[in-house]
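Researcher: Sequence recovery benchmark, item below. Answer with residues only.
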């Protein structure tokens, strides 16, 4: 499991590279939060539940493309989360030459520490090579 890139937690947080399938096809789901990440990433006293507040697009290998980002929640797998309908979708447009430097505000529901999250990407006008790199901001809370 790759550690989550938390905005502001490090000078150079790890970006997740997420690839779509072809046009209108979901790419492979990438785990961005694992069962041990609350204890590893969040401050003591704020590890009981967590949520994602923002994402920052750090790079794209194609210019001026439209994407849909799906964040999937489940305790076993991305496929189970999709089947259960425990996911949210966010529309993103990225202009690689002039991408916004400010984070994109999103807000997921609070989840218990042992729940996992995956990110999955689809492009509406790109190709399977139209990858996005991003970091997520996670917040932790006590019970």
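Model:
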């Amino acid at each position: 499991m790759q550690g989550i890139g938390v905005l502001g937690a490090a000078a150079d947080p790890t970006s997740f590279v997420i690839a779509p399938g072809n046009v209108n096809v979901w790419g492979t789901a990438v785990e961005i939060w694992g069962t041990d990440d609350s204890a590893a990433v969040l401050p003591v006293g704020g590890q009981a539940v967590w949520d994602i507040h923002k994402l920052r697009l750090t790079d794209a290998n194609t210019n001026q493309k439209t994407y849909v980002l799906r964040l999937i929640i489940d305790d076993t797998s991305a496929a189970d989360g999709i089947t259960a309908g425990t996911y949210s979708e966010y529309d993103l447009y990225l202009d690689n030459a002039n991408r916004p430097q400010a984070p994109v505000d999103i807000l997921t529901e609070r989840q218990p520490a042992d729940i996992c999250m995956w990110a999955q990407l689809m492009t509406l006008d790109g190709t399977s090579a139209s990858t996005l790199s991003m970091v997520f901001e996670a917040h932790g809370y006590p019970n």
